[in-house]
């Protein structure tokens, strides 16, 4: 896995769009291998697989996804998780850096497709390795997601960025506090009010606001949410958060929890019908999450 990651990292660090595309495909293929059930027949030798730059995603897409409980004993997932705990092999950091470079390049249709591919990979990475979400507690990375919501970006990029933003805030209250301090609510509501914003994006924005207003709950200190991984991996959700984010200290996530009423008041600065949104949430009786 280190060899594949090293090759992918070299490609996505390039200024050549063809190499970037190749590197993002390699990461996508790796994630597909982890998430999808393997076939019974495997005619490829290890040497052949090393020489193949991308996985046959057409075949992968026909395979059923693995059950979450099965990931605990999956050797590929455990190896992936282990590598993500250190800075050198953390894929989310590299993809975020790639996104930053793509935003600085000439904007065209091909570049937009690369941004979409990077966002898709990033969402998967944050779901598979929740400790990587802590990188968005840093303003420079949160600002990158907010830049992707600018009106000059195409609707597909705006929608994909919102999905990544939700994943970055999920069960990570400290990231939500960074989002708020970076005027994230102003960015989201401004885009929502823009006449040029498409209905599809406005629907995604409305879904995000519902998510934001959901009650926050303290994150258990050593639990791997919804993955049923072993205790050694579960402990990494707390132990490694400072390693990934570069933060040497700081209190536990529960200290960053904000009440629904407080968030309602913050959002009310930019939106007039927040009370109606909260009422809808209460009527649907969503479970608490640590957003």
TrEMBL record:
Key words, A-Z: Cell cycle, Cell division
GO terms of biological process kind: cell division
Coiled-coil features, chain-numbered ranges: none
Pfam families: CDC14
Alphabetical list of InterPro entries matching this protein: ARM-type_fold, Cell_div_Cdc14
Region feature (Disordered): 39-62, 241-262
Keyword Metal-binding: no
Domain of life: Eukaryota
PANTHER family hit by this protein: CELL DIVISION CONTROL PROTEIN 14
The protein's name in its UniProt record: Cell division control 14, SIN component
Organism: Sporormia fimetaria CBS 119925
